[in-house]
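Whiteboard transcription, Tuesday session. T.W. wrote the C-alpha cells on the left side:
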C-alpha cells in the first residue's frame, strides 16, 4: 500500500481497467468527477462496451508511456504482477498508487452505510438485486457490483442516499496487498451467502478460506448486522463469531427468514417468504433455482433491516431484470435458445443448471463448459465437476484455457471429465476449440433446445457465432 496519495486526486489511471471490478470502479470514479483512463490486455464485453459507452479511454497493453502524463493516482488491479510495466513505472516515478479495494474504501465508503455482500457463490446476483430493491424503493443507493445490471445497463451508480452496496470479493487485493479485497470495505451490514474452497492459486485449503471470512466478519462493528445463509454449514459456523447481531435465512427449518417456491413457469417463479414463521411477502421473480431463492431471502432480510416495507421489497424483487452473464438469454434462433453464464466453480455449475431445469422443464438442455479460471485449470475439483452436470442432457467440454498457468501434475483434465460424465450415463463430448463446438451444436441442436454456455471469458465470441450458425442452417435441419 502506498500512503502518499493526494487528498483530492483528479486524474486517475487504472491498470487492468477491463476487469469486472475495475471497470465498475472506473465508471464510479467518472461519475464522481474524476478524469479516468486505463489500460488492459484483455478487452471484451460487457465491460469493454460499458467503458466505451462512457467515453473512458482504454489503452491496449501495459506500457510505461501510458503514465507519461503523470496521473494523480494509479489504481493497480490484481491482474498486475510486480513486473507489470506500468506498475514498475508508477513505483520508479514516485506516482501514488493504491489497490482497487483501498481506492473504493478511501474515496467512496466514508460517510455511507456500507452493505457488503460476501461469500463463495451468489455475490454478484445478490448485490445487484439488493442495489435494485433499494433503488426501486427510492433510497438512491450507490453501488459497485462485479456484473452489469440490466435495469441500469451498468455495474455501478453514485447515488445520494445513505447506503452503498458493494460486492465483497475474497480474492487477493493486489500484488502488494495479499489480503482479500473485502477487508477494505468497512461493512455495517454484511451478507454471507456461502463458504467453500475456491481460488486454489491463493488459498491452500478450505481452512484458509474460512480464516479469511472470519476476518471479514470480525470487521463488523457491534452495532452492525450480519445476515447469513444457515443452509451453508461453513457460513453458519463463521457467523457464530460475529460481534454484530446475526439474522439467518434459508430453505430449511429453524431460520428467521425462510423461503419457498410456490410455482414456476418459463416466465418466472412465485415465491413466499416468512419471517419468524409469519408471512412476510409474496412476489414473482425471474430468478430461477433454489440458489436464487436464497439470494432473494438475503436481500429481503438486508432491505428490511434498512427499514423497507414488505410491499416495496416485493416490488423490487419482481422488477429486477437480472445481471448480464448470469443465465442471460443471448438470443433464440431456429427455435434454439442460447444462454450465457459465468459459472465455473462446480457448485455454481450445478445450481445454474438446476435453475435452468426449473425454468425450461423438459426441454433438452446443453451445457457447454470452458475451464479457464485459475481454479478450473487445476485438478482440485476434478471429481466434483463429474457430479455438477447432472441436470444437463448433453455436455460439451472445451480445452482448458492456458493450461500452462497451472503447475504440472496439478492440471485439470477436460478429457477425464468427459469420460467421468459418460461413465455416469451422460452424453458428453470433448471438443477443444470453438469452431468444433459451434459445428456440433449447430448440426445437432433441434427446435426447443436450450444451450447454456458457461465461461468467465469471451470464449472466442461463441454466443454470437453460434446464433449465426443456427440462423444459416438449411430449413428443416
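and on the right, the sequence the group agreed on:
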Amino acid at each position: 500500500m502506498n500512503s502518499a496519495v493526494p487528498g483530492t486526486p483528479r486524474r486517475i489511471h487504472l491498470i487492468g481497467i477491463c476487469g469486472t471490478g475495475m471497470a465498475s470502479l472506473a465508471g464510479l470514479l467518472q461519475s464522481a468527477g474524476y478524469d479516468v483512463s486505463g489500460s488492459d490486455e484483455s478487452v471484451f464485453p460487457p465491460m469493454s462496451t460499458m467503458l466505451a459507452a462512457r467515453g473512458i479511454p482504454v489503452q491496449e497493453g501495459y506500457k510505461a508511456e501510458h503514465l507519461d502524463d503523470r496521473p494523480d493516482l494509479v489504481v493497480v488491479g490484481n491482474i498486475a504482477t510486480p513486473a507489470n510495466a506500468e506498475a514498475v513505472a508508477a513505483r520508479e516515478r514516485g506516482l501514488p498508487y493504491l489497490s482497487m479495494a483501498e481506492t473504493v474504501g478511501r474515496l467512496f465508503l466514508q460517510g455511507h452505510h456500507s452493505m457488503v455482500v460476501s461469500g463463495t457463490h451468489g455475490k454478484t446476483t445478490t448485490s445487484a438485486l439488493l442495489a435494485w430493491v433499494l433503488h426501486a424503493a427510492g433510497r438512491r443507493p450507490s453501488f459497485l457490483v462485479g456484473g452489469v445490471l440490466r435495469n441500469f445497463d451498468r455495474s455501478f451508480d453514485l447515488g445520494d442516499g445513505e447506503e452503498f452496496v458493494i460486492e465483497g470479493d475474497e480474492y487477493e487485493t493486489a500484488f502488494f496487498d495479499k489480503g482479500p479485497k473485502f477487508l477494505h470495505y468497512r461493512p455495517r451490514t454484511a451478507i454471507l451467502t456461502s463458504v467453500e474452497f475456491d481460488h486454489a492459486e491463493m488459498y491452500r485449503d478450505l481452512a484458509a478460506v474460512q480464516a479469511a471470512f472470519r476476518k471479514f466478519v470480525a470487521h463488523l462493528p457491534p452495532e452492525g448486522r450480519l445476515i447469513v445463509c444457515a443452509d451453508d454449514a461453513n457460513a453458519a459456523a463463521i457467523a457464530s463469531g460475529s460481534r454484530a447481531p446475526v439474522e439467518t435465512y434459508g430453505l430449511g427449518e429453524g431460520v428467521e427468514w425462510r423461503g419457498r417456491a410456490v410455482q414456476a413457469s418459463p416466465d418466472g417463479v412465485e415465491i413466499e417468504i416468512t419471517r419468524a414463521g409469519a408471512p412476510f411477502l409474496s412476489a414473482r421473480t425471474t430468478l430461477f433455482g433454489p440458489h436464487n431463492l436464497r439470494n432473494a431471502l438475503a436481500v429481503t432480510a438486508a432491505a428490511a433491516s434498512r427499514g423497507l416495507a414488505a410491499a416495496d421489497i416485493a416490488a423490487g424483487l419482481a422488477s429486477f431484470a437480472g445481471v448480464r452473464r448470469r443465465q442471460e438469454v443471448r438470443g433464440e434462433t431456429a427455435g434454439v435458445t442460447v444462454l450465457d453464464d459465468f459459472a465455473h466453480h462446480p457448485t455454481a455449475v450445478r445450481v445454474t443448471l438446476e435453475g435452468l431445469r426449473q425454468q425450461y422443464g423438459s426441454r433438452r438442455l446443453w451445457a457447454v463448459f470452458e475451464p479457464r479460471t485459475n481454479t478450473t485449470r487445476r485438478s482440485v475439483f476434478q471429481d466434483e465437476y463429474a457430479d455438477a452436470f447432472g441436470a444437463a442432457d448433453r455436455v460439451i467440454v472445451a480445452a482448458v484455457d492456458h493450461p500452462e498457468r497451472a503447475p504440472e501434475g496439478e492440471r485439470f483434465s477436460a478429457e477425464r471429465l468427459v469420460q467421468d460424465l459418460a461413465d455416469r450415463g451422460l452424453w458428453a463430448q470433448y471438443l477443444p476449440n470453438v469452431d468444433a463446438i459451434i459445428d456440433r451444436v449447430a448440426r445437432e441442436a433441434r427446435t426447443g433446445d436450450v444451450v447454456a454456455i458457461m465461461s468467465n471469458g469471451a470464449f472466442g465470441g461463441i454466443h454470437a457465432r453460434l446464433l449465426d450458425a443456427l440462423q444459416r442452417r438449411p430449413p428443416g435441419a
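Someone added at the bottom: The chain has a mean pLDDT of 92.
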